[in-house]
Records
---
Amino acid sequence: MAANLSPAQLPSAAVNPADLESGSSLWRDAWHRLAKNKLAVFGGVTLLVLAAICIVGPWFSAYGYEEQNLNNTFAPPGAEHWLGTDQLGRDLLVRLMVGGRISIMVGLIATSVALTIGVIYGAVAGFFGGKTDSIMMRIVDIMYALPFTIFVILLMVFFGRHIWLLFFAIGAVEWLTMARIVRGQIMSIKKMEFIEAARSLGLGRRRIIFRHMIPNILGPIIVYTTLTIPAIMLLEAFLSFLGLGVQPPMSSWGTLIKDGAEKMEEYPWLLLFPGTIFSLTLFSLNFLGDGLRDALDVRAAKD
Amino acid sequence: MFRFIARRLLETIPVLLVIITATFFMIRFVPGGPFTAEKAVTPEILRNLEAHYGLDQPLHRQYFNYLGDLLRGDLGPSFKYANRTVNEIIFDKLPVSLELGAWSLLVALCLGLPLGTIAAIKRNSFLDYLCSGFGMVGICIPTFVMGPLLALLFGIHLQWVNVSGWYGPADRILPALTLGFVYAAYVARLTRGGMLEVLNQDYIRTARSKGASELRVIFKHALRGGLLPVVSFLGPAIAGILTGSFVIETIFQIPGLGREFVQSAFNRDYTLVLGTVILYATLIIFLNLVVDVVQVWLNPKLKFE
């Protein structure tokens, strides 16, 4: 993405002239600022480690995620089962890792759906302005006020709780804020010289939007994306907790927490491990998102 | 202002109509009816049941009948609970959910506003980091982790309150804390940001230079402007608290409308699902309108447009 950005294309407000002379790009600057932010680095490293464990871990596990052992139910954490076992004697560690894969998938797929809808919608509204914009944004305002969680719940109950449906349903409700942010950014660069130059070259609208405008507002888009991922993972876990998301014997962090909460009185580790890992992931994502926001100096995505 | 409110109310009508229509037809095009779960229903009884509830009529007739009843405030009979109407069930369960929501909102504001204000005043001090840390904890520990943890600590280990149920005043504490905590965190964050912005403004410096006490500066001058981000957050917060109570009601076994809604969706209790969706949508849209009005009232720079 950095390759698309020649210095001349950058919005002047975001670039320090001194940086241009020394040849340092906005992105490299941001990277340096990010690397200095300890919390953000901690978040990023934690996420990488957790993701690596979840993706690779199950292959090295001695147990399968649905492998039951009724002679060894509710085993406390120990040498054989590092994190203990559940009511069917299934290994909690491997279930936690498999659940992590689901969370990663939700985070990637649902976020891409939300990102695609939000960016295109916001860019179109911001680019055309006028009546088109006011109607499109009024629709967003109205949709903000709707109880969307309820619709996701209905969708999941009625149409078979399929995991792909889950991804798309979540993505389809989380695009609103992205659309607002992108619209605002597009409006603010619409009148800049390089866009006028592109127009005067006779470029088509689509080309101007996708090749010239969107690459220039990547900063806010990236920042807001990192802040959307935790919201989306939270929604998946919320649905799974209600029994509407991922179905057994598949595991997800939401279902593990739900099962753990039911047994917490006697077997608290069943709640504590999934709860801790999930919260740790959310912490890391938020730290990383906040760090990126500071590093890229994005104000629009602040709240 | 009245024109603004009137226009917004008029706008509400098509929105609600779209919601009602979409939900109505979505439910009907789903495999499985409300009576498929009941075992050993002969075709004859099934026909009688469907005739009794008007399910044998053409779909568009059912739709217009429903709209007609709705205009008269009748949400129809429940398909699952024999001899009970949706109105009765809602009147029964809604007060519980509303009470839970009100307590949670109170927790959110009573915790969030002071913490955010303190953090802003004592910017970059230890107190600030403590308050901001609280904000992060609240945002990153979801209700369905926080709820069981609080129940484990205060209900099971310390035995101060009951783990579940909705009887005495003490039963309100844990659910309200759990649900309110998340929003307290957001409120604290937004208050801090808003206050920081306001505290740098000229009119605050003027107030200070005129010798107003620090307390007066904060409460009389700064808070009004600093709270604007919080007020605009209240709309989404109310919607979140209302739907968030689904989980809280499940964890703490509270007989509220949220749990009833999830259950009714599982039961394919068409009328109860529809009634609840309509109710929640109306409630959320109306509360958003109230929030918008309060926002303009607080900030003379905004206008009713």
---
Amino acid sequence: MQLITVAGPPSAGKTSVILKIIEALQEDTLKVGVVKFDCLSTQDQILYQKKGIEAKIGLSGNLCPDHFFVSNVQDCLAWAQKNEFDMLISESAGLCNRCSPHIRNVMAVCVIDNLSGVNTPRKVGPMLKLADVVIITKGDIVSQAEREVFAFRVKQANPGAVIVHVNGITGQGAREVGQLFKGAQSVDSLTDYHLRFSMPAATCSYCLGQTRIGQNFQMGNVRKMDLS
Amino acid sequence: MWDHLSVMTIKQLFSSYPYAADFFSSLPNLEQSEESSVGAYFAAIEEDTLQDLGIGQQEFLEQFLSFMLQMEKLKEDKVKIESITIIGGKDKQGKAEDVELTIHAGEIVCIVGPTGSGKSRLLADIEWVAQQDTPTNRKILINGQLPDMRCRFSVEHKLVAQLSQNMNFIMDLSVEEFVSMHAESRMLENIEEVTSHIIAKANELAGEQFNPDTPVTSLSGGQSRALMIADTAYLSSSPIVLIDEIENAGIDRQNALRLLIDKQKIVLMATHDPILALMGDKRIVIKNGGINKVILTSEKERENLILLTALDRKMLAIREVLRGGGHIDEIPMALE
């Protein structure tokens, strides 16, 4: 079973890109499944089903989506094995830019879009910096200059990554990324695998349901801004 | 490399490698550390800071070295691309394309065919430097030879620059800031000179003038297109320019194309505008997913181009009358 973790900021075009890549892989008669991690709700299952792609949805609700991801990813892999997929793609949104769903020795992909602005590559953490492949989307609506500067900044943020442009609407570039995906390492079980980087942590009173504001109610892992 | 860099002070590092400042831009205590060595600076970064950055100490060092190495590579000279050759594959029905077409630097080739006929696939084959590994089974050669396949995934060796009608500037910058930012990313040294040159060129191409301090987002369609073309001609690292139509408004299209070929670009243009199509040296006719034929622009067609250009000028003159609030009561019929 090949596993690929795809992460990226909300609305970067992850689902569109994955759909186009799977379409290309289906032409090579590969059976690909998807697990979509989201927070509150998602309609994307319908999009996948329309294309005849088996997809499972995981909603994290009031948990940190990344922590939810890592607690479930092994079970997702087992589901994919039971269904005899050739490849499983996990899709998760990087909501705080410090998110880090990538796993050592598992192909890690970050999707990021040109519209997010040329400073964004500097602002995104391990999700981008530790990815093997960075897919840049929405290149069809910004100028060539902006595309070049954006790709340059991505390269600065992650000099070792393979950087590719994919158009989520026309699918331009998706076939090519599909070829990269086919080279992903096989995984039988994720038990004892490591995350590439620790996940963002917050164990404070607010994690436990506190809603009141004020010094007296802040307990646990609390950090203060320097406003001096 | 680390041995060499780690003993420099941060100040020395920035003056020898100005781009290194980009790597450090989001790191703390930079100003206080100017005189300390790069090695000492890295050693002093606290675990908490690294946690916030989302990276470990070892990886952070590796990333710095990899950054420096890649940035140096960007400055290296690249293989000059003199020509690309398209060797035919097959169309959607599997019928062989009987074609071997070489396009040289400074040439314009147009691509014609209805929507869905396979124009985009041809452009994608070129961008991917297809080696009989795409649905069309085409093969692309660079300078008559098999290219270095690493160019497929390389940012600095990207073969193809694209210009289309849907493209817009989205950045909140003035024209001058915008162009110089692009120039910086190309590691150029004479940024000011290049920037003012590009702005002057774009103004020559645009119907209406704009200033260096005009925000890029408030340029008109024609001005945007003019700036995009001038910027691509001078600053894009890609030797091939793909153009998807240039609307006939607010931009001198013939001079815009001339600028690109003067810069020795290979221009591929999907267009159904007769003036643009006849400006090309050749045109590729796409049918059913395949290259149906290649037409050389004939002498007769070139003569007609002069006629069409005169017609076009007439249309533009009428447009100007309209823009100036005039009446279109008379249309001069004679075409000189």
---
Amino acid sequence: MRRIALLILSLVSCLISFADQRGVTFEKDGLRYTISSEFTARRFNMNRSEGEQKYIIANEGEVYVSGVTVSNCVVRIPDIVYAPSTYGRKDTTVMAKYHVLGIGEKAFEGVILKDLIIPFGLKFIGNEAFRNLEITNGVLVVPPVRKMKANVFDGVKSKVLFMDLETQSKEYPLPIVFENTFQNKDNLPDFYIPHTCLNTQTNGLDKRILYSVGNNIYKKWVETSWDEIMRGRSNYRTYKSSSIISSVSLSKFYTREGEIASQIIIKTPKKFEKNGTDIDMLSPYEYECRNFFTKKRDVYEEVVLNESLYRCKKSGKYYYFASDGKPITNVESLMDDSGRDPFGLQVYSKEEIKAKKSNKEKENNLNNKVNDLKKAFGF
Amino acid sequence: MRITRIFLAIVIAIVFQNFSLSANEYSIGDIIKRDGISYKVLVTYLVVDSKETTDTIQGPDKFYCSGELMVVDVDKSLNDVVIPPSVDRFRVIGLTDSLFYRHEHDRIWLPKLQFAGNGCFAKLKMGSGALVIHDISNLGLGVFDELDADLIFDITRKITWGNAFSKMRADSSFVPSVPKGLIKTNTRMLGFIRNSYVYDDCYGATADNYKKWINKAFNEDEKFQQNDLVSKSERFNKRTYSTTPRKSKNGFTITASAVDVKGMGYPWGNLTRSYYRRANYSVLDKKSRKTTYYQDFIPVADPIQKSGWYVKFVSNGEEVKYMLNGKLIKK
């Protein structure tokens, strides 16, 4: 019975830690975001006044837009949004940097906006995301998005301009994946693409439903509504040649400066999961850890860092390492009185700690008694 | 007796020649008025009925006068304007300068044309909201200046744009001159306008979306769009004929056509009112495979000839006569 209770408790603690990362919602600048993943990273930070190299432990992650709280105004979806986070922190809150990766299901359903500015390089737009959306400026400009799900534009009350029909991944163009995006044909708006996209090969899109527009019309529409975004990006070709890849997918972070530092690379799986909900579309990261101390390469489900150690999760188990990669075997020494590790994770329950404390006390008492006996007998 | 026979033959020849000339219904410069539209005859040339063959053409009476017309006036009071592809045996090939200038019509149906003169559709107002242009090979200056409607290019081949989308100021400098409405075309035909000024300013559509545009321009009237069927039923359009059967190694193959008189000049260089064309007959000698070009071709009835008639060509005022088998008739 006791073992089962312990198992349930550990499972609950796992779920809590999972919920910390994924599914939490917050609001900022008229938009509602849902966190889909979160991690800590060691980032290089040059102190210009002192001329010294410094590293900071930063919280980063990914969010998707799950709703809007304003109307009749210009809404701009940023590339990056900052919000307070407690992930991997013990009793402290830091501002975490979240990359906006997509637009969730029915996020803009039935909203009336003056304009909606969508950033480049989004990974997905969820089912019926723009259902019955009305843009009073007249044109909804949609930059290339990796994947568009079912009936995204159902009932949109303005023209829809696709800036391109392919995204750029590294140096290779990737066609946008349309998954039943135009399935409901009764209530579709007029779709426009630039003449230059007419020969782009697409999946799941019948190009006969599209209108094409010349460069002057394209620029006029884009510049009207995208004044901010297009500033300094007057030539779209320049934009295309630059990288649109999510900055997270290839990022590296190091546990310690110097040659022997362990190296951890964040890897996102290449394919989207085909589950119904948006949160599952953003599949969890893989963390590839190259440990120079053990001379091993491992893939973990989660990695959290601070200045002196890092914690990795694999198959539900947590492993602790010093910053140079040396495994920490005496995990109990890292825990505080309440059973939490330096990252705030509840590793041991109170009962476990009580039991361990009592065991320790018993052991101490036993040791004390043995020592007393040794002294008494003159050893 | 012999002198009488020769005299009779000459009389009959003159009668036949006059008969063949009487087939010329119109001559160059004539104005034809039909259904509120006036046409000017630009050029005439001889054609044969498409049903006729070498065996049935046994004299000059089987040749008919055909030619090309330019539309010079359209009645302002017309609600729907239908410019047919041909009037009788004459093809409509162009529209004169300022033809629709400041006009107001509900719908206009145009055939495939060779040219539209300067300011042809300038300030035209369309009740249906769109003007559909089928193939027009050449466009003049400021053709669509302030056209008060959408402009749909329903084209199937390349257009020479010239200065169609610019107009001249008093100081001879050019300024852009575009329609007030949208410029639309079939997406599949975008390649034909890629190098034009309008490429960056036009909308493209295919399939149903394109059909929607066209239907709207003609007020959803399917019948109105079928005006080009008239030209398909035209019988007198065979411009190539042979003086001997097709397999015969002797004789001529004569093809009637028309060319611009001023060398490579185009109508929009000057006003189209002073524009005229000249008949051009390309004559292929079947035996030598040599082609010669003549300005005029006259089939002449002559009972002395074995065939009963011969052909006469005129080039720069000089006449040459040939028998049907290609042999030269010496003077």
---
Amino acid sequence: MSGLRYVYAVCRPFGAALQAQLTGVAGDPPRLLAHGDLVAVVSRVPEADFGEEALRAHLEDLDWLAGTARAHQQVIDALTAVTTPLPLRLATVFRDDSGVRTMMERREDAFRRTLDRLEGRVEWGVKVFVEAEPERPAAAEPAPRPVTGRDYLRRRREQSRAGEDLWTRAEGFATGLHSTLSSLADDARLHAPQNPRLSGAAGRNVLNAAYLVRRDASEEFVERVDRTKDDAPGIRVELTGPWAAYSFAGDAAGEEEAGAGS
Amino acid sequence: MTVVERREIALVDLLDRLLAGGVVIKGDVTLRIADVDLVRIDLNALISSVNSNVPSPFGD
């Protein structure tokens, strides 16, 4: 068995079979590596692409990164259909099976704790965008030139006031929505707002949040998001999910919780 | 559960989770992604998205 081991997730053992046609990040179908009462979901990857130097270079190639991320996500998605996986960070690669076992041995208590916390839960992503940009008149239809300096200043003032109003409203809306949704969720995380140049999304991202929600509470959660969508003109709400609990798998959170004596 | 029908996942949403979420393993791995300069990944992503067809956002 040559090649390195790419680990997608750690789970409790589950009865169902994974989809037969499922392929991993380098085409090798994922398999289960059992250790004690946990299983790691693993596939083989070539050293030429996943060794340290090659991986470092690949991760800066957006096409490679995108393909790998989507393949990783497919495996996690398939797992989410049959169990509650604890996803690992993208591109977690070990030398061999024994490296994977050693890692599981070392972290089994933390894995069990986290899996218990996530059990039966999924992640929903909610983003809020401010859509309008009142300060930028349509390029095709330039505003008539101000006749006087006073006109010009008045127009600038009105534009910036409209912008500030929308901004204030958006902030209030996002804060209210976040608090409502947090009350329906077991946990919440704020991601950095997305760069519109990166996301290609229209408008400015003012909230980029993730919520950990019980599966049986998800319908209500989604309905709540849907209902708020039309509440605020100029503001757009986007829902993604259900995701595996990527944003709630983190060590930092676990350690903080442990440190807080929970 | 009943899954809300979804469009293809946007790469940026995926990367929010795969590069910032998930368990980070220290130790015997070939490379920790936390060691990778994500700012440079962002920059590359930015360049390629600007190149593709989007007009330059730097006009103003």
